[in-house]
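Re: folding output
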Amino acid sequence: MNILLSLTDENINQWADDLEGPVALHLKQKLLPVEGEGGVIFPPTYADIGYNIDTLSDGSRVVTIDSVGSQGNRIEPIFKAAPDNETENPLSGLIPQITIRYGEGKFVSILEVGHRLGDALIRSSELKEKANAAFLKFLDNGDATDIAKLAPTSLIFGVWDSRDTQAKLPRVLQAVIRAWDVEEMTRSAQYNPPIDYAALDVFSDEDKKKQEGDPKSPLAKRGFVHVPAGKALGGVLVRGGIERHITINLVALRRLRGTTETTSALRRYVLGLSLVAATASLDGFLRQGCLLTPDPSVSANWETVGRDGVRTPVLLDHHKAVQYTMNVKQDFAVEPDGSFSFSKDLAHADLQDAPDQKTKNSKKKPAKTASAEAENKV
């Protein structure tokens, strides 16, 4: 029987430093809709396919309730400072608070930017040069120190500077929610206007008859006539359970490098933040019709996964993870909080750098004469 490990500084340091240590930390957590077992929940919908449902070889059906990317986007803002310091967020002190100014006194936190440090908003702001230099440093010698000091969540949840340097770093933390053995449901609705607008000569009885029941008609779109809606997506009935899986990839973590002096501190800092994010309370309101909570009747235990596949239970504690990260941050000097302005000129320049735009521009340029070529070389 495996011994339950407690979360100590020594254990966390070993996970970060020991190249022969466990390959991952993993949690499987059973979730329930607030309606209880048998409740209908609404998965996200995607263009052209509706719900993302896969049919397995045995005929069972699995639906994505919250994707890896969506879970990352939900977790990341736990590190954001509260607006106008209305309330204090103790987690905000663990990372640099970087914002982009735009418009009239508007701000957006880098923690709310979809592509993180590789986002178009970053390339269109005063932060561009600093971000670009951090990516190039990683590409040149594998040193992720500057990325971690500027935007550490780009390492935790992954980043790909796909529109510029092509620097790509995998997620250290991955979370996903799926439901098993599901049945699709449908729903119907009927809109009834409160009064008869045709009787009040807003439009004719003939127009009413022509457009009533057609949701695409102008009168229906504006809510003036009866509109039925039938056989729309109505959520899924889950027979096999809802599961949330969280994985901290310790192999990916230990591939992060800095200088000889910073590598250990870098890995410990990123692991600490990952533990904080992984143990934070789940906000189970994913969307309308999908409010989930942990199932109190099923224990959710973290495990270390060894290179030999052996799983050892470990007690991960959120408060301990926060304290550890606060301590190791002192050995890893992150960037100070900062605010950078959006630049319309930089945004225009970035658009001009796009491959398809370059092709268009090259087609518009007249062929240079020999004398023009000679002038350019002077």
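--- second protein (sequence, then structure) ---
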Amino acid sequence: MEVLQLLISGISQGCVYGLIALGFVLIYKATEMVNFAQGDIMMLGAYVAITFISLWEVPYYWAVPATILVMATVGVILERVLLRPMIGEPHFAVLMLTIGLGFVLRALAGAIWGNEPRALPMPYVGDVLRLGEVVIGYENLAIILGTALLCLLMWLFFSFTRIGIAMQAASQNQLAAFYVGIPVKRMFSLVWALSAAIAALAGILTAPVSLVDPLIGFVGIKAFAAAIVGGFGSMPGAIIGGLLVGVVEQFAGLYLPPGFSDMSAYVLLLVMLVIRPQGLFATMQKKKV
């Protein structure tokens, strides 16, 4: 039963890593940029949710979609103001820009909300589901079910909607997409909006489990490792990689000496780079632009 309990906890944590990793992959597939501020965007989304629910006392069923909408708007603003002018610049310059953006977001969060950890009160916090000797907190169950629902919606969106198909076309071949009338730059803005919205959802789901502070965004480093483990061009790989990192982290924390839990994600990354550098789902391919 201990193993099953650890497995459920690992899956719950891994879903958070997977959602952030999904944001990495979406932006990379569309723009070939790596957004190292993705974890900090998740942190900002959690603070926006806290503002709506705790400070303004907005009902949670209105606060959650409002938070996602606000963060989608933030994603569009970041793409248009900061990232669009960087198209064509060296990848290192874009990398440094997103790292700097992370520092700015952390400082901004500290200035607005303070550096003291804050909790996000949700109606299901504290309740548990008992399956024999296994106890599952409703917070963990919400993370798992929320991630599963999001994956289903993402699959439907990219498979059956015109915008989703257009976004895929623009990510695969920008020039061909432009020639057939797809507004490529607008698709890039939508990708950033979607990535920020997913990060906001990750922040909303994880906030009831762990307190929110400006440094919580560093979880994005583990999510980046998860994205590489799964295959940096694969959306299913991002989720699978996140689950692997989360499960390995939980088991390492129990069965290995202290300190190995935090290292496990990077050890898994190094092993994957040695054994299969392209990741579990190797879908990265050269784009024609």
